[in-house]
Amino acid sequence: MAYAMAIKAPGGRDQFHRIEIEPPQPGPGEVTLRHTAIGLNFIDVYFRSGLYPWPVERDLVTGAEAAGVIEAVGEGVDLKPGQRVAYTLPNGAYASHRVVAADQLVPVPDAISDEVAAAVMVKGLTVHYLIHHSFEVSDGDHVLFHAAAGGVGLIAGQWLKAKGVTVYGTAGGPEKCALASDHGYAHVIDYRSEDFVKEVMRLTDGAGVEAVYDSVGADTLMKSLDVIKRFGTLVSFGQSSGPPDQFKVGDLTRNSLRLTRPTLFHHTTRPGWLLKASAELFDMIAKGAIKIEIAQRFDLGDVAAAHEALEGRKTVGSTVLIP
């Protein structure tokens, strides 16, 4: 029986409950997918908690990325049943089956497993736009990336290193710092025992970095401003520790800094971007330049436990849910 893990109302993890659904049928331009793996991301927590506005009154099905097998296609679709595909959309992935618009799907190469594809559509494509568009890095740049041991951070460290960038990271505890060091980071700072501002300035001989990529928010954003070179860029792309409400536009005047707050789903609407970016991401993985660490697996029915681990910063690398 097809099913989904839905949320009754914005709030805690106890809102998750299983609902039985009829296997959906595709309309024109759509396909029906049977999910084989679903990615876990902080955006799922933001929707569950109500931090991001709900698109429905109740029984919201969250989940922003998944991989699966096409079971049926609608009129005007070139894809075929049995084809392996992946996607990223704001919600709807916490289900065994769903209907997706065909133009939102990307083919999964033979060299990429379903679990890896499901784990990188949000995180890998986020890294793509961060380092190619939000602040386009160049060989020889120095940047700071917070949450270096997380799913996005581990991909970023490897991709940035491949581009000739010296990347500094922050992580909590020796194990996470060691993990990040193994994934492209030149230096990893343990924020639990070290002041990352002092360490970055020491490591750069007082020069600072061209950019900071900050998905942590309240705990780090104001200090991030202190390590950016004149005319440098702060990329704020998340708020795992809470919204950085203390920030004021005038704070940028300390070094004529630039600030950007991009989102993935604005990029996916750009014509041709999704196919191009995902193909580049899969190519980097297939040739071994980026290795994906799937460190946690949960049954989809245990999604509440997965959220608890994510919110408690008990996860490293990527986490997938298996229907």
UniProtKB/TrEMBL annotation:
Enoyl reductase (ER) domain: residues covered: 11-321
SUPFAM superfamilies: GroES-like, NAD(P)-binding Rossmann-fold domains
Organism of derivation: Thioclava pacifica DSM 10166
Protein name according to UniProt: Enoyl reductase (ER) domain-containing protein
GO cellular component: cytosol
PANTHER family documented for this protein: QUINONE OXIDOREDUCTASE PIG3-RELATED (PTHR48106), QUINONE OXIDOREDUCTASE-RELATED (PTHR48106:SF13)
GO MF entry, a single one: NADPH binding
Keywords tagged on the record: NADP, Oxidoreductase
